[in-house]
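Job type: complex structure
Entries:
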Amino acid sequence: MRFKYKNLLLGLLVVIGIGVGSLYLNKINQEAHASQNALEASYQNHFFSLIENIESLDVLLGKILASNSSEQDIITFATVWSTAEVARNNLDSLPIGMENMMRSNQYLAQLGDYSYSLAQKIASKQEITESEWQKLRQLQQENRKVHNELRELLGLMQKEQIKLGSLVNQKEIELTPASKKMLDGFGKLDERLQDEVPTLTYDGPFSDHVVNRAPRGLSGQVINEDKAENIALEFAQKMDRKTKYTAKTTGLTKGRIISYSVTLKSEDRGQSDLVFEISRKGGHVVLMMDVGERGRDKKVDVEQASQKAEQFVKKLGLGEFLPTGHLVEGNELLVNFALVQDNVIIYPDMIQVIVSLDNGNIVAYDANKYLLSHTSRKLPEPKIIEAEAREKVNEKLKIEEVRLALIPLGNLEEQLTYEVKGKINGDTYYVYINAENGFQEKILLVVETPQGTRSI
Amino acid sequence: MKLPNLKTRLLAGLLIICILGVGLYYGDFIGEEPVLPVQGKVGEPRADDVWLISRMVVAEARGEPFLGQVAVAAVIVNRVRSPKFPGTVSGVIYQPGAFSPISDGAFWRVNPTEEHLRAARYALNGWDPTSGATFFWNPATSTSPWIWGRKVITKIGKHFFGT
């Protein structure tokens, strides 16, 4: 009799179990479908919006080419820039795989950037050249093609009722023939842009010549691994680490700066490794990092750490550097330095040093920006005097300090300016006045936090 | 007798599976000490970027040497700067299909430690052991033929880096 009751109980439990199980599965299923549908709605929204943006760009570019008013053009160019940004955002939200949208991304980034630079040209009273008009015409024709292809893809999606969510790259899920056709469509569009968009060289950060620029500061001969290892050891000496290191080259980094990867191991097991990237041309230290953990003590304060960084930079013998800002993060102090030449701060030539607040050690160094932009410069004489620069700033700005500075512009150009530091409405700003024509080139807001200062 | 033993074993087995299941589900939350994400405010716009990048560093480069973690973070930063990729950190990280920890949800389960935050900060401040890489992949787990068509810059730990 006992057995029978047990059987019955077990049987009942199994049935309840299956019942609860299937209710639960059903609930999960419904939630999954709701999520998928919400996601699909989001994807399609971005797709439709993208097509709308491309259509707007069509119209705007056409209007610029037809227009005879340069004042109006400034606004239209700015609208093209803004619309291209939105388009790019919408494109980036589509699940078509990043490999199918890299060139499309670049096309939109450059179109926006290029338009912005032309708007700036008109605003500073310069003429748009014939070659620039031609490039715009090419871009308009290209844009029209993109528009047509996207409309075709939209038609395909609607006719075959393809869900964009099905295009997501997943190894397990096989694409249906319809989905594959759609994905291929995007891929072909992207590939074609690779071949057909004119090379754009202009005043903007996404211009081909800026993106692909070669480093300027790699002076000197090509060196071998042994030399690189010696350079690393000498560098470590200057860091005042009271230990002996052995060096080993672990590889060659074939990036924008071709460099040897060198690791220094301390003979003292308690000390962490130092890793270096040392340029093959000229043996310049591109970066150094102490890869060990940082202690949590605060044996050194910000002032002392700052001093250590400055002393270290002096020892490097790269020239005269001025600290231009510092930041405390994670028990370390980051200090930025800019080169000084003839009393002018050369902002593009920047190096960075990190000091541990735990023990005052130099724990990181970076000279990438310096090596990209440093070159021997003959600085022009300012055409306006300091008093004139002071006149040019907003009259409500309470001026604290003025000095000469070379600043990088969006493209690869550099401009000598007066750096006017002043206060307005309780905030501190740096206003950069072009030292040759008095134009206001740039304004930066200085943000003071307990951790340090930033300018944005 | 045989029958009661089988049922008891079955029940015991099911009970163990249930306990293991619950353990696996919550398992990700024990072990590393959680670090609270720093909220971004005006003037500290990068706090959000550090939060995002450090999570991806954990998800993609857990167990890799510090140099490898900075390298992974640098790839994300390089993409933000490149016209071929979205122009913000969140855009790069959340780009559909770009990173598998997003697809499988691991991104939201990890707990970055101080070391991972440091790797993210270094990369945001410009440290780049890959000198410009916009891709990284693990040869042991990467099956996409497309990724192998990228130009290799260097190898750090178990990842190749390239463009």
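Summary: The two ends of chain A are 83 Å apart (CA to CA). The first strand of chain A starts at residue 245 and ends at 254.
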